[in-house]
Amino acid sequence: MTTTYEPAADFDEVEYEAEFDGVAPTTIPDRSGEEIGPRRTVRTSTLDERFNVLGALAGGLAIATLLFGWIGPLTGVIGWIVVAFLAFIGLYMLLVSLRSDFQEVKDRVATVLIVSAGVLLFGALVFIVVYTLIRGAEALPYPNFFTQTMELTGPLDPLSSGGILHAIVGTLIQIAIALAITIPLGIATAVFLNEVGGRFARFVRTIADAMTALPSIVAGLFVYAAIIQLVTHQRSGFAAALAITVMMLPIVIRASDVVLRLVPANLREASYALGTSRWRTVWHVVLPTARSGLVTAVILGTARGIGETSPVLLTSGITAVMNVNPFSGPMISLPLQVFDFVRSPEPNMIARGFGTAAVLILLVLGLFIVARLIGGRGPGQQSDRQRRAAKAESMRDLQRITVLGDRVAAGAYPPRPAATGDYAEPATPPTRPTSEPEDQK
């Protein structure tokens, strides 16, 4: 189905130009007789597109099965998947090229590659989570796994004895200290990079970029040499938190830097035009606008720090007892507890290790949910409680303005100053003149 445009019947272009003193205004070009093809949908697929995908997928699976089972001496599941995918891509290109030009073939193949990459990453994530939960299902049903420590439990004891309470508490304390240092320092550094700038800002951005690729064992060695050997002379939870901070800080800085760059410049200009200082603009305009992105930056940093094992191994030490003092004595964390469990050859200890890994995954998921609830709303979006409070405030303002308007109309506001006494006489309401003044007649 095609659509054509017809010019208006009463349109006179010469007369239209004469109205503007000979200068022709901007007009819509004449599209009479021009055909417009059917609009291509990008969110839904047609029957032909579904046939191409399913046909190429069936052909790729058949070719891989023939090569691995009948024609060639090939074996292995991974090789079969790779051959099937390559055959699928080739057949899909062939099917699309039968009815489309080269540009659309490239577009379709790129779409398939991007979707395949997303499916691959999501499948790997699901496999890791499901495999960990299945292997840890032996230890998770026992309540003592969450309420006891390993102080009185050995490698040969059953799963009904011992737990990881000390590791959960140690992880929460260490990540809390690391966040208390990382969040203000990282966001303040990102604000400096965006709002101040200069040569030193470029140097700081370069250092932050370099630190994102810093090996975790190097951070652990740095804290071990600078803090443990020179200051505390013992492994502790605070030293482990400092090592985690070194790993989290560049992630938070770079992610926050990117988020603050996305804040529109006209918001800052509007704030400056109202006479506001730079730092009030940052505090009341820039940071609230980028709140959800800053929360995402903190989440990325937390995900990097909460799963670190090698720096914690060098700085916190391994213990089987509860320690809530981060400045004295070893304090184990969940990743380090997993490492301590799975290096044992006993099946019960390995089951405890996978159970600890499952608890770590659930803990990270819980922290992400809490962070999203705190800062997941975009700028200007209000919660239900905030909307109800704003509505109630608006109703109070409306009632106050209405009452004030009635008082003004009645002449009771503003009050007339009285000569004597404590009370004021109500002002006489103004009257509208009934006739025109003499000088206007």
UniProtKB/TrEMBL annotation:
Matching Pfam families: BPD_transp_1
Keywords from the named record: Cell membrane, Membrane, Phosphate transport, Transmembrane, Transmembrane helix, Transport
Gene3D superfamilies, sorted: MetI-like (1.10.3720.10)
Stated name of the protein: Phosphate transport system permease protein PstA
Annotated segments matching region Disordered: 408-441
NCBIfam families: 3a0107s02c
Predominant location: membrane
Lipid bilayer topology: Multi-pass membrane protein
Family in the record: Belongs to the binding-protein-dependent transport system permease family. CysTW subfamily.
Known function: Part of the binding-protein-dependent transport system for phosphate; probably responsible for the translocation of the substrate across the membrane.
Intracellular or extracellular location(s): Cell membrane
SUPFAM superfamilies xrefs: MetI-like
ABC transmembrane type-1 domain mapped to chain residues: 168-371
Transmembrane domains' residue ranges: 51-71, 77-98, 110-134, 164-193, 213-232, 238-260, 281-303, 354-375
Gene that this polypeptide is encoded by: pstA_1
